């Protein structure tokens, strides 16, 4: 540990349910043991997004909230930048690390404004947990956002991508050259998902809440109910499967802006009581214990946390082959993948899993072995500590040469 703490400001737009919030909170908590004094700055979530405040409380993290920092663009962004500039000038951090698109834009702009002299500027690090540069907006809007990312990449010391697939996509889109990026996979405390104590009882209890019997086979999707997650694709898959598998039941865990529209969709109405809308669930280990297959049908992903957690719980997974999914799932080894536009391949994959209990067990066991070796919290922390120390040493060396 250094003789005096290294001041680090970590900025994220919102602590909504998902991997970026988990990573921001856990890194804030864990890095203190390595000599980092971190202020976690967060914005405000939309009501339907849920939040990870309970995790911050469990880990003793007290985020600084900027109420003007929100997901959607608006006049409050100037207020958010102003608040960030004042905070940064007061704290004078040695490192500013931003997470995801909104915080990456406003946080880096605020740093450049607060410290116009590059020699006095904190080291700038930004993490892409995925990206919204394709598939979210119109071509014209996407082009504007790509240009913003290109301009902000130049003064950023290091860009982190959570998978090589995400990095390659950003390089292809012209955000920055490969040399500017570091790939740092996600890492979590997976002990709750590996724990087998009382698993059968916890499975039974949650299934009873869902009104699902022991003889039912449960296919679960865990996701925010937003367009990019393509919940409609999961509902279409479930409708096709229910005709062949009368004992199959389907569960959607999560919430979001599309919930009401999805619940009114023809596929959801046909599924009726064979489909459970579970909303947010705090104890995700119980969700996976109660499931037999976990599916993800997105059009794009960074590193899908639900697939990591499901595999840690030894549950086989079925997913569309998009973004960083292949960094998590080995097709045919720990799960089955299908091209996003190939509904037939999704049905075929689900059919294989529903028909073959031994296959489900084999894939589940292989998935647990794979993710618990690759996506550990200890590795995530070590990767960040090494990167920060490297950047600080490089800056100190440059300062000595400039004397």
Quick synopsis:
This protein is an alpha/beta fold. It has helices spanning 19-30, 53-58, 76-91, 101-114, 139-153, 164-172, 191-194, 199-209, 231-244, 259-263, 266-271, 284-289, 305-312, 343-355, 357-374, 377-402; strands at 6-12, 36-42, 64-65, 95-99, 123-128, 158-161, 181-183, 217-222, 248-253, 275-279, 293-296, 317-320, 335-338. It contains 16 helices and 13 strands.
How many distinct beta strands?
A: 13
The averaged pLDDT comes out at 94
Q: Helix count? A: 16
What's the story with the biggest beta sheet?
A: 7 strands, parallel
The CATH class of the largest domain is Alpha Beta
Per DSSP, what share of the residues sits in E-state strands of 2 or more residues? 15-25%
Q: Spell out the helices and strands N to C.
A: EHEHEHEHEHEHEHHEHEHHEHEHEEHHH
Shape: globular
Stretches where pLDDT is under 50 for at least 5 consecutive residues are none
Helix percent reads 40-55%
The helix/strand class is: alpha/beta
Which CATH-level-2 architecture of the largest domain?
Answer: 3-Layer(aba) Sandwich
Query: Cα-atom Rg, whole angstroms?
Result: 22 Å
Major β-sheet strand ordering: 3-2-1-4-5-6-7
CATH superfamily name of the largest domain?
Glycogen Phosphorylase B
- Total tally of structural domains: 2
Q: CA-to-CA gap between the ends?
A: 27 Å
Q: Could you characterize what this model shows?
A:
With 403 residues, the protein is α/β, with parallel strands linked by helices. The chain folds into 2 domains: 6-187 and 376-402, Glycogen Phosphorylase B (Rossmann fold, 3-Layer(aba) Sandwich); 191-374, Rossmann fold (3-Layer(aba) Sandwich), CATH 3.40.50. 45% of the residues lie in helices and 16% in strands. The strands form 2 sheets. A 7-stranded parallel beta sheet has the order 3-2-1-4-5-6-7, with helices on both faces. Strands 10-9-8-11-12-13 form a 6-stranded parallel beta sheet, with helices on both faces. Helix 9 (231-244) links the parallel strand 8 and strand 9. The protein starts with 5 loop residues before the first strand and ends with a helix.
